[in-house]
Predict the structure.
Amino acid sequence: MKRDQINNLIKSVNSKLIEPISFPEVRPAEGYTSFIMRKDDEYWMSQEVFEKTLVKLSNSVGCSRVIAAEDFERVYKSTGETVRLNETFGVSWEEFSRFCSKNAMISFYIFDDSQRWCAWFNDGYWVLVFDKQLSDHIDDIYLNVNTALQAFPEADEQFKIFIKHLYAAS
């Protein structure tokens, strides 16, 4: 996608769903809920978790492709060019694992055209934000703040606040 097009999509995701730049005050937008998971392996999550979260949400809104895009713009020193890495791929484990295995993005979103959900990935964890009307498609185990806090025993107070904000009702 062209830079202007992807930037407009990211602005929309940030205004509708989540804006990580406000860490630790990150909260899902009103009418949305979220959860956090520790990065599981090189693909951030297992195939089972992928199918129980991203695939279920995409299927529930009728989307068969997702957009992955960095949550920041890069400026290449050698050329001065400003880019936001992005890629579009099908909602399948094969496509997701292929993306992860060749991905050069440091911190990025994955979302679909509906923009009713968005996953935000970084080096150590990932967050899924979604329209509360889609909650029936997500297993309750993911929505337990105590489970999330236990997954990050090394978390400092600031990170614990971040986690609690993600699970706060809005």
